[in-house]
Amino acid sequence: MPDNIPLMTLDQYWIYLLMGIFLGLSGFLYEKAVLNVGRVYDWIGQKIRLDRAYYPILAFILIIPIGIFLPQILGGGNQLVLSLTKQDFSFQVLLAYFLIRFVWSMISYGSGLPGGIFLPILALGSLLGALVGVICVNIGLVSQEQFPIFVILGMSGYFGAISKAPLTAMILVTEMVGDIRNLMPLGLVTLVAYIIMDLLKGTPVYEAMLEKMLPEEATDEGEVTLIEIPVSDKIAGKQVHELNLPHNVLITTQVHNGKSQTVNGSTRMYLGDMIHLVIPKSEIGKVKDLLL
């Protein structure tokens, strides 16, 4: 990123508010897409009678044209993010890049191959920020020298909304940029995006993914298992005796600040901690609804 990015004046801060709303709405759409793309694969698999183990073949076939014609937008996206401030992309090109990366990110994640969504989210956020920046520059709301800040704000706001971890997003992007002068705009955009996501009843995407991985039910009611669940917003701040768990479910330990500790009725749950439960397989679905 360029050094000494010119700061926007206070009378331009309304742009940040609108950008936060836009990123919050976009983050909500991303979450809905990434959590439901598996259904599209299942539907296609049923139509062509393809086993789930072969879903990655579909992703591989669909990614070949992008690798041939647009290799610069493949991968995690770090080079794409850097190029946004070094090259003068038009609105149409940025929109095309965003749509391609969005769709193919869903294709890649839905195939079930090991990967991740962290860097793709940052890359998509940077493209959304660049789109807003190009519009603002073209209609004369900001100068071309102020354009890079929109890329930064896009990453922070989009990731903060999707992960519902605004402080993490702000600190992460600030560390990446190495300039704390943008902390106020980052905070405003990211918190507005987070609030919009919360008003839309969006859930932290990583918790939602974990919830989808847990089985809905089990046929063997007598067999017990040990599972690990993150402390979500729903139970954060509560004590164990306030959770109203089924009588045959036992919380054994809680991992707090990297240290495991035994749990009793007065132990308080903290957001971001992990708890371990001994639970009958038949109760997994019920406990998932109670805790996540």
Automatic annotation (TrEMBL):
Any Pfam family: Voltage_CLC
TM stretches of this protein: 12-30, 53-74, 89-110, 117-141, 147-171, 183-200
GO cellular component: chloride channel complex
Gene3D superfamilies attached to this UniProt entry: Clc chloride channel, Regulator of K+ conductance, C-terminal domain
An example Gene Ontology biological process: potassium ion transport
Main location: membrane
Membrane topology, record value: Multi-pass membrane protein
Keyword field: Chloride, Chloride channel, Ion channel, Ion transport, Membrane, Transmembrane, Transmembrane helix, Transport
Residue ranges constituting the RCK C-terminal domain according to the UniProt record: 211-292
Record's subcellular location: Membrane
Signal peptide boundaries: none
Entry's Gene Ontology molecular function annotations: chloride channel activity; monoatomic cation transmembrane transporter activity
UniProt-listed InterPro entries: Cl-channel_core, ClC, ClC-type_chloride_channel, RCK_C, RCK_C_sf
Protein name, UniProt field: Voltage-gated chloride channel family protein
